[in-house]
């Protein structure tokens, strides 16, 4: 049964969603290969820890520099074309790197490549969720987001790393070319979305300078978020989750080696358990969303995730640790999917990109800080303390942030267009050209 008492049915998402999903599968496969490939190539020639850490920092830097401007671009231009440009840019960059390796590459080429891939990812990860309400009806967003998250977990965290390792074993140029081909395939598959009607865009006022126009658009997006309690509080909770996740994940390898006495294979299996939990969460979260109020699901997902972190820190046996990290993967997706869908519903079409960019900045911008705090806490206390403290902070913080919100107040904060469902014709019901926004 659904929240309204009607029988639960599997939504029909339509052919346009299938094109988007197929493109997402290809691009996530490219992500899974390149995110493992670049560190392996750096380690092969420069195995110093600071060099490897610098590569990761360069790849994540565009999220701090360009996340908010990427949201403005996604609201001014056709989001499908932004995705197309992003995938083509990544394909071209990797294929150019093939030529650089053939000519004898340098460390600087790998750093430039990492930065370019980071910029393209920032654009793609902002435009894609902003475009989803153009394709899928509002009441099916949880199901659609769950379908998109599943291949991301499988290909980024499970299949991509071993594939990259095998490809590097054959040759660096083959590995780079494979990543480029996957992004090229993702671009080609986006051509199937050519008929999607773009949401209305607001042009800059005549005579306004580019810098001033950008600043005004940024202020409009941030103001929209700050004047809605549901968005502000869930974004604050996302920032807190980013801190907790990065603090614990940065110390997970030490927990595995020192406390659980695992080696490389055991640590890999522990990560796999978390990934399997995330996949299970992508299946469970949309079904819970049809039965539970969004805020109830979000609050309890964070509370249970915090409890899983505490359990992981206190686990003295690998089986208990595997169960805890599996459950945490389930609860993480049970939080991510309904809250992302909530933000997509709240934002009017012309602000989807900016709301998504603020969301990404809050979620991912806090991760470097969390990793540093986790390291400091582990050095002054213990690795176990990092997990127990992080879990307790997540539980208390989520209650403080989300408990004051009331589900019946959400409708009053949503834009009028988001609250009035559009009547589908018989033809539209199968394709969902555009549902409620």
From TrEMBL:
Residues 423-437 have a biased composition (Basic and acidic residues). It is a multi-pass membrane protein. The keyword Heme does not apply. Residues 1-409 form the Major facilitator superfamily (MFS) profile domain. GO terms for cellular component: plasma membrane. It is found in: Cell membrane. The chain crosses the membrane at residues 50-73, 94-120, 163-191, 238-260, 266-285, 292-312, 318-340, 361-378, 384-405. InterPro entries: MFS_dom, MFS_trans_sf, TM_effector. GO terms for molecular function: transmembrane transporter activity. Keywords: Cell membrane, Membrane, Transmembrane, Transmembrane helix, Transport. It comes from the Bacteria. Residues 412-437 are annotated as: Disordered. This is MFS transporter.
